[in-house]
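PT: before anyone asks, these are the final sequences, not the draft ones from last week. 1236 residues across everything. Please model them as a single complex and drop the result in this thread when it's through.
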Amino acid sequence: MRFEKYFQPTSIEECVSLLKEYGTDAKMLAGGTDLVPRLKNKVIRPKAVIGLFSIPNIDKIALTEAGIMIGSMVQLRHLQKAEELGDRYVVIKEAAGHVSSMQVRNIATIGGNACNASPSADAVQGLMVMDAVCKIDGVNGKRDVAIANFFIGPGKTVLENGEILTGFFIPAPKPRTGTAYEKFAIRGDTDISIVGAGCSLTLCEDGTVTDARISLASVAPKPIRATEAENFLIGKKITETIAREAGKLAASNCKPISDQRASKEYRVEMVKVWVKNAILEAKVRI
Amino acid sequence: MSLEKMQFELIVNGKNYIFYSTPDRTLLEVLREELNMLGTKKGCDDANCGVCTVIMDGMAVKSCTILIPQANGRNITTIEGLEGPNGLHPLQQSFIDNFAVQCGFCTPGMILTAKAILDENPNATEEEIREGLHGNICRCTGYESIVRAIEAVRDGEYKDLEV
Amino acid sequence: MNSYIGKGAKRIDAFDKVTGKGLYASDYPNQFPRLAHIKALQSPYAHAKILKLNTSKAENLEGVLGIITGNEPGVDWDQYPKVAVLAVERTIWAGQIVALVCAETEEIAEEALELIEVEYEQLPHVLNYKEAIDPNPVSVVDPDYEKRPVGFTDRPGDRATNRVSPNIVGAFKMNAGDVDKALAEADVIVEGEFWTGRKTASPLETPNAICRYDNDGGITLWSNGAGVHGVIKQSICRILKMKQSQVRIIQPYMGGSFGSRLTPYVELLTVLMCLKVKRTVRFQYTRQQTFTMGPSNWPCYTKVKIGAKKDGTIVGNDYYLCEEIGACLNNSFFSGRLSSSGALPVYGWGGNLRMDTYAVATNAVPAAEYRGLGCPEAEFGIEILMNELAEKLNMSPVELRMKNILNDGENNCQGDLITSIGVKKCLQAVADEIKIDEPSVQDMGVWKKGKGLAIGGKQNTPLGRSEAVVKYNSDGTIELLISCDENGMGATTAMTQIVANEFQCSMEDIKTTKGDTAITPYDNYSASSRTTYNTGNAVIAACKECIDKLKEEVARRYGIHTSKVEIVGKKAILKGSYVQEVDIPSLFVPVSMFTQGNWGLQVGSPVVGHGIYCPAPIIQWDEKGLSPRVWNWWQYSAAAVEIAVNEETGQIKVLKVVSSADTGNPINPELIKGQIEGGVCMSLGFHINEEQIYNRDGMMANANFSDYRLPTILDMPVKDNMKACINPDPLPDGPYGAKGMAESITIPTGPAIAEAIYRAVGVRVDGYPMNAERILKLIKEKKEKEA
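LR: through. Structure below.
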């Protein structure tokens, strides 16, 4: 018996009340690609599993003037191929498209990728560089949390007992903004990343950087922003040298660990390389 | 304290199956143990090797990490469902003709993933085929014959076998 | 006259596999309604004392049928394959089985595991060559080595006497010519020390077995193990002291092996439990257990010193090798001799070769066979040094090798006669295809390209007996019964082709049954690429006996000599008789109470031929390690690659591979092409990315398919850049001149890549896997030196 009770609520309210009742003894089932292997290995033994597929309206993509709303139950592959996102939101598609394999992306969800809160999560990196806002509903009513503040540590988010992530709002990017996400993994997307680097650059007409976001995966207990590198870019024009410098700054400010995938020294080296590459790619896409 | 059984329905290869199961089993376990469809294999049980791939509502998915409530009421195609009344599916025949089968353990998952790729993208390039198969491991063939077999179907060499 | 030899006949098992209808051992549980399940409790430490082991709570759980620990009465663990040895007072590798539980359901068995109380006291461990070979190592894996009785497969020459470390548990020395003198007179010396990582074969079907308890106290076993007769049945009868008549082993379709199934571990444990609980039981390893409870390969540490004259004539090789065999207690199999045989098949070494080889035990999972049997590890350093030597002498790597490769009819340094060696053709073919003389064009930015080539050879061990039975039915169709393994390489198809060729009939008229000890005759197993050669020759012998019997019947019927009869499928062609052609089925008479015809050819009763083949035996080597015959024949391969190395990340992209095999005379070129492509892929995997990585407790930290980096489809070159070629040199005693080839493929790709890395970014590797981190480190060290 992998869990004791199964629920499939048909509304947010019903879901929230179950979450409140079971607290940390409940796990939510979205795509299941992170949850199910852990259930099988008995790494987690929840009392209750709550399937989210019958809750309406949390699996849509909606475009507005101000930006886009992505429901938390939107599958990564759907996101990857969503033509309505166009070039302006390309990093959202790109980051989602770097998760594992086609079969996994067919059922894994953007909300699941966020709530699983792995420091190596790829899909959330697109959200990070576009300043996404996490939409939360639950016992505290509705609330918004900036994506950069959503993660606390490995497997831990700001969601409290009785709260559910319903989606993300991504504000429309300013004009002359280019974005990119570079996932560095040995065999390709099916590997967990050794380092992931996302970048968003906004330039003014003469090519000077007015705004920058650099986010990193797999180099800290959670997805982080390389703020020192971001600040370094402001007011500069992007060249290979500047990008390289920013990469070095980003690397000097992170403390990755050594594990079975890579040593910390190698990760630090790769931050230098891939932040540089993400910056240069983002510039090309403006 | 035990987990209660619930009623589930799967439409597998066009046929309706209604059964009772605890909701904590995976689609792979139900297909093999409940419905006796042994063509879908278990390799790593970890969503990495791809031998458990089936097609669910037109999408290739790894059945070892899908809990049965996720599949409830949905259309599943397993390897058993590929043969038509006129014989083998083009991909099956092409895998035979192009020696894309050795030990055969990855073959059902590989063929179904290939079908999903070509159904969505009938003119998939070699690069797109390889990208789509990135989540399917084969230890025997080195993948080249598998690519040749899929391209032969893409290029229309098995038109007369198509349904 | 049709020839089925050299034809790409379609596999006879492909239909079953593409439809999912073919059953593997792991598909059999559905047939047993009251099946009991076995689960294993494993040690988490590489080396630990077991202070307390209490299974009473688990035993009392309802639904638990039996528990086995290392203290099970009546079990002599010394007889068991090393990886199936349960921990007694110590656990000696992380993952070793501490207890086996059998219960009515998998769930109850898993619950029982959690009720077993174990207390460990961790001890220091040694995980690799350097740690283990220390004269005062922190862990002695087998302290009783000297006291143990000699194991049943022991060979006097392989017992270790000069034990520089107490972890040395096997040794072999060979001294041909005078290496010291030769090297002293050399114009140029190249030398190096080389290491290799630990890898796991990882066939996609995990080890599993079902053992049915038969009412007479006997058993029937379905498993994906190798060698139904030679490996599984014989070990069960010997170790568990069962009557041969009571043991039946069946091998359904098998999800790959690559050598890993050649020791009967899951089978023995399943039968042991079955006999204890007297129920039909099943045991399937999880993927993690396949890494930690199933065998790995054996890494090798080598030191090679080669001397040559200015003109490229090699004068001698001083060769040291040590196999890391994992936690093998009472080792009687490893001595370094098997791996170091890789130094023998290709070059003559001017007649001067000294081999000083060892086996060292470590607290890692015990090793067993893996495609190549230590030859990729043994020849890696040799081929790297050959390329280095070519550069030093300003010779082409092709020319240097051509000058020193042995020829047909010559003897290698150990004394074996080489009767089939096509490696020169292989080498030329790959060199031409890759255009080795034209350096790569640097057009990939931060990815620097380079080319490299290498060659390799591997022995076939004379591994005993194969038998075959051929039955010619009264309707002219044929049944073939064989017990060779079908791991996936297509052996059963090739054997069927042989029958089709001998009888000149269509393959549709032949049914091949394999792998059931009650039905199919004896065969040892598929090891050392022996099946085509050994079983193939047995099949030919069986066909000949059956054909001779048919000829006799026809000749007698028509009053002519048997030499004037030819069997062609369902017809007999007669020379010089008043009847020219006879329909053979018409000669079989139906059952009748009124005639004596029941004694001759009768409808429903086939004419049977039985064939046996054994290779000639080994001649024990002398005190110098020399012998005129140790190995049976040799397979060869050459590989040329073009790769790109990313200067910023150290990653390797394999752009183009040309791989060539000397397969004797190929029976089915399509199957061989499949082996070449598959072998290249497997080789790329373990040379570039795969290795076992350990945590602080010595437990494998990447025992899964996420982090143990098997090659995916994106790791192979695109299909137009993967060229497989066959350059055969017929083997005189092979069936139609054929010989096996699937292991040699894995040898030269690694050193070819090493050379290509050198050409691309100017660094020389000294071991593999040549992963991105290691390559980047070498690149950075080089940049720092130059600065």
